[in-house]
Amino acid sequence: MTAPRLDRAALEAARTKLLPDVVAPGLTILFSGINPGLMSAATGWHFARPGNRFWPALHQSGLTPRLLLPREQSELLTYGLGITNVAPRATARADELAAEELRAGGVRLAALASRYAPRFVAIVGITAYRTAFERPKAVFGEQPEPLGPSRLWVLPNPSGLNAHFTASTLAAAFAELRRAAQGD
């Protein structure tokens, strides 16, 4: 079963909804999207938009033993994985967010890391990371500074709109994080 078809009115109504975190203490990796898309906010499932490559990248990288559907997001916890967002506000596109929202989200994400202590926090979206944490020259991969007790990693944005990364290069970036997490 794929994501339900939603009309424009249902998607626009999702702008006021908050998407709950999928998080628990002691995760290996807490993934953080930039912010919920309208499809995600409408369904309550992270990375729910058809064409988003988050779920395939998790599987192809070896982080999950099978391809999970967005509606199966709670199963991530059994693999030591979780999901949150830097900014909580749902938008059609991440570029609708103000820099202040991303910086406030960075503070929120640091508090979440301190509270739940995942081994890694992986932010999927380098531009959002650079803005949220005021690191304009940051590159993909592990960052030199931790986020609370967690090692901090930046991955490419898995949105289908991100044409800079193919499905295979995206999966390779996720696999690099998996290897680092397994090497601890």
What's this, in brief?
The chain has 184 residues and is an alpha/beta fold. The chain is 33% helix and 12% strand.
Question: What does this protein structure show overall?
Answer:
33% of the residues lie in helices and 12% in strands. It is an alpha/beta fold and 184 residues long. The protein has one domain (18-182): Uracil-DNA glycosylase-like domain (Uracil-DNA Glycosylase, subunit E, 3-Layer(aba) Sandwich). A hairpin with an 8-residue loop joins strand 4 (141-142) and strand 5 (151-155). Helix 4 crosses helix 5 (126-132). It has a five-stranded mixed β-sheet with strand order 2-1-3-5-4, sandwiched between helices. The protein is globular and about 45 Å long. The mean pLDDT is 94. It has six helices and five strands. Keywords: DNA damage, DNA repair, Glycosidase, Hydrolase. Its EC number is 3.2.2.28.
Instruction: Tell me the number of strands.
Output: 5
Global morphology? globular
CATH top level assignment: Alpha Beta
Structure annotation, total helices: 6
CATH homologous superfamily descriptor: Uracil-DNA glycosylase-like domain
Approximate helicity band? 25-40%
Neighbour order of strands in the largest sheet: 2-1-3-5-4
Question: At the third CATH level, what is the topology name?
Answer: Uracil-DNA Glycosylase, subunit E
Number of spatially distinct domains: 1
EC number: 3.2.2.28
GO molecular function, one term: hydrolase activity, acting on glycosyl bonds
Enzyme class: hydrolase
Keywords: DNA damage, DNA repair, Glycosidase, Hydrolase
